[in-house]
Amino acid sequence: MKKEKYTVTGMTCAACSAAVERAVGQIEGVNAVNVNLLANSMVVEYDDSVLQPNSIIAAVSAAGYGASLASESQKQVAAAQGSPIEDEIAHMKRRVIISLVFMVLLMYVAMGPMVGLPVPHFLVGLENAGTMALVQLLLTLPVLFVNRQYFEVGFKTLWRRNPNMDSLIAIGSGAAVAYGVFALFRIVYGLGHGNLDLVAHYSHDLYFESAGMILALITLGKFLEARSKGRTSEAIARLTDLAPKTATVLRDGVEVEVPVGELAVGDIIVIRPGQSIPVDGVIVEGSSAVDESALTGESIPVAKSVGDQVISATLNKAGSFKFQATRIGEDTTLAQIIRLVEEAGTSKAPIAKLADRISAVFVPVVIAIALVSFVVWLLLGYPFEFALTTAVAVLVISCPCALGLATPVAIMVGTGQGALHGILIKSAEALETAHSVDTVVLDKTGTITAGRPEVTDVIPSGELTAQELLRLGASLEKPSEHPLAEAIVAKAEQESLVLTPVQEFLAVPGKGIRAQLEGNTYLAGNLPFMQENGIELGAFLSQADALAEQGKTPMFFANTERVLGIIAVADLVKPSSREAIAQLHQLGLEVVMLTGDNRRTAEAIRKELQLEAVLAEVLPEDKEREIRRLQEQGKTVAMVGDGINDAPALARAQVGIAIGAGTDVALESADIVLVKNDLRDVVTAIKLSKATLRNIKQNLFWAFFYNSLGIPLAAGVLYPLLGWRLSPMYAAAAMSLSSIFVVTNALRLRKFAPNR
To answer: 263 phi and psi, to 5 degrees?
Structure first.
């Protein structure tokens, strides 16, 4: 299977995106297709052994739209020429200005005489009705011309039986203009035959100003909508702007400034204070402090030296260094983040698919309602122009813009806000599903805890001080590669203790070590190792039990005769994890810990953090089974892990969350990737999901409510009782306002902020 992205042109509403999806989805070999109305893009997954891109493009064209493959070169050309959204806004602005100028003139000429405004004398009176009608037509033509796209796309899709919003506009405004031209001919006929009654009748039936007003107001609404859409893409734009455009690279020992696109893996790049890092790599010379807050949210600059990794788009604060490029172009961390955000915007949430299904049948139904209302009013004996304006009003007010924008705008803003907070949401479905999670399963090591052992207690016998015991322990453990030994050595180095070299070092796997230090033999290890060597533990045995009950690992240190003390080591719970678990509880969620550790250690952490349950001594391959067991109990599970040994469990959970992604993002198994190693971002992700879904439901409610109220009103259902009906002009204004309302409501998500 192959997945490719296409640029689609001509889409204006949800009916358009549904038509494109339907056309491409019917092609043999297509596995999945997602159309993004906001980004005018389409992602198609297909079998490239039976299908070629040209066939996909042809299917889109047959549906009445345009398509082209969004290749990398095209992206670069587009980037060089400017943002497509900015170009669209500029184009819409020109259309709005021309439309409004001629609409104002048209309204002045058409309505001026009725309200007593001064108009040229050759436009006043029945004898000048023909001139008046002709002037109105001439003022309408520029509005029709600049907005010809509605007619080109609308009638083309109607002809191909895929009517969309443009079809409604084209039929509505086209009918008004056609009837106006008919009235013009009747006026001229009446003047030529001296039939002033005919002239008087049709001079009041000129609907050029209605057509001009409809097109101008809808174009104004589309302009405001396009401008708002530009703001929804702000997160991606801000991420893209983080990366520098050039880099200083060593070529044949000489520093040369080159475009970032010309860098190759293995290049040595020079970074000075204040410069952004262009690609991912490893420092080979020098040291510095790097501000990684743009990607990880960590406000404190991170110290970097030889051998440390640096990430693209982070900022060098102090010091200079050279690093070797390891990831360039689309492989950099920044590029992966941008790609994830874009893919999330392209994907559809289940709730969006409901709106698409409705939109697919909505436009044909509206056209049918307009025709029925036209016929019914004629049969009831109302004038032709009354029936016509009623039908036009139904067509115009029913444009499904608000319905089509309700979900994708909120999804795009939501995923964008997630990216700005270091939360990469891979799909709209994950964003929607996260709100319904009722059980959060947390991996222990590296998720709840820091993932590295630290010394917690140093308990010496009366023969040694705590520092002497730590120095002895670190000296003995220095040759060992065990993680617990490394923790003891690190603690000694932290306290600047001078270690003594050992002789005859012997490691006993799973038990401990034996070594000579300054001519004396010492032992270090666990309880069975001490017992095997006949070491009397005395009161230290109960102390070791107490430490173990607290989730710590006690290590005994002794000479050949007696115990000298205990050093306890533990993988400590991160303060942020403690806070995050408390916040998850406040949200009413059940929190379960999953770990391969022994039950005693796991139970100690469960008590400390007040977790509902703990699943201990679970092998990596069994974690997926435990998640499935929870799901079989009817629970909606979010699994939080490091995305590597937890991959099967992450994939099994309704929402898989990889924490502490750094540069090795767990792209395959997780639905949500947290760039920072901070469990509090799980809370933020769930809160963001709840806020986004609430916003989508608000948008859909108002879109459906608006159409449910607007269509009957426009059709004149209340006219016989209350005399209420909408003119096409008011219908156009109402339709535009509904779209603006939905987009503005979605933009409120930009104010989302986690409560820390």
So the answer is: -70, 150
Phi, psi torsion values for 606, nearest 5 degrees: -60, -45
Q: Strands 613-615 and 590-594, how do they pair?
A: parallel
Note the pLDDT of residue 663: 35
Task: Please state the rounded mean pLDDT for residues 309-320.
Answer: 84
Torsion of CA 183, 189, 192, 197, to 10 degrees: -70
CA 688 distance to own-chain centroid: 11
pLDDT at 399: 61
Q: Are 443 and 670 in contact (CB under 8 A)?
A: no
Architecture of domain 435-449+573-687: 3-Layer(aba) Sandwich (3.40)
Tokens representing residue 96 in the block = 């709005």
Q: Is 80 exceeded by the pLDDT of residue 662? A: no
- The label of the residue with tokens 């108009």 reads 119
**pLDDT tops 80 at residue 505:** yes
Strands 553-559 and 563-570: antiparallel
Distance CA 427, CA 344 (A): 4
Nearest to 66 by CA among 136, 9, 2, 21: 9
What are the tens digits of pLDDT across the range 337-352? 666 656 655 555 566 5
Per-residue pLDDT reduced to its tens digit, 424-435: 887 777 888 888
Burial track 626-648 (b if 16+ CB lie within 10 A, e otherwise): bbeebeeeebbbbbbbbbebbbb
Separation in Å, CA 52 to CA 2, 3, 46, 389: 10, 12, 9, 47
Q: Which of 267, 291, 356, 443 is catalytic?
A: 443
pLDDT bin (cut points 50, 70, 90) of residue 203 is confident
Q: Kindly give, in sequence order, each residue whose CB lies less than 8 Å from that of residue 681, ignoring residues fewer than 6 positions away.
A: 421, 422, 423, 659, 674, 754
> What b/e string do you get for 90-123 counting C-beta neighbours within 10 Å, with b at 16 or more?
eebeebbebbbebbebbbbbbeeeeeeeebeeeb
What is 454-570's CATH topology? Calcium-transporting ATPase, cytoplasmic domain N (3.40.1110)
Q: How far apart are CA 640 and CA 653, in angstroms?
A: 9
Rounded-to-integer distance, Cα 525 and Cα 520, Å: 17
Name the class of domain 244-331.
mainly beta
What are the pLDDT digits (tens) for 226-264? 665 565 555 556 666 677 888 999 988 889 999 888 889
630 sits in which H/E element:
helix 623-632
Residue 223's φ and ψ, nearest 5 degrees, are: -65, -50
pLDDT of residue 271: 92
CA-based end-to-end distance of the chain: 43
The reported pLDDT for the residue numbered 269 is: 93
DSSP per residue over 159-203, as a string?
HTT---HHHHHHHHHHHHHHHHHHHHHHHHHHHHTT-HHHHHHHH
User: Chain-centre distance of CA 388, in angstroms?
Assistant: 44
C-alpha to C-alpha distance for 717 and 206, rounded to whole angstroms: 24
Q: Identify the pLDDT of residue 349.
A: 54
Interatomic CA distance for residues 166 and 172, integer angstroms: 10
Query: What class, spelled out in words, does domain 2-82 have in CATH?
Result: alpha beta
Length, in residues, of the chain: 756
Q: pLDDT digits over 519-571, tens only?
A: 889 999 888 889 888 888 888 999 988 888 887 888 999 988 889 999 998 87
Beta carbons within 8 Å of 287's beta carbon, 6+ residues apart: 303, 304, 305, 306, 319, 321
Q: Annotated catalytic, 443?
A: yes
Task: Let me know the angle formed at the C-alpha of 340 by 17 and 642, rounded to the nearest 5 degrees.
Answer: 140
**CB contact set of 269 (below 8 Å; sequence gap of 6+):** 247, 248, 249, 250, 263, 278, 279, 281, 322, 323, 324, 325
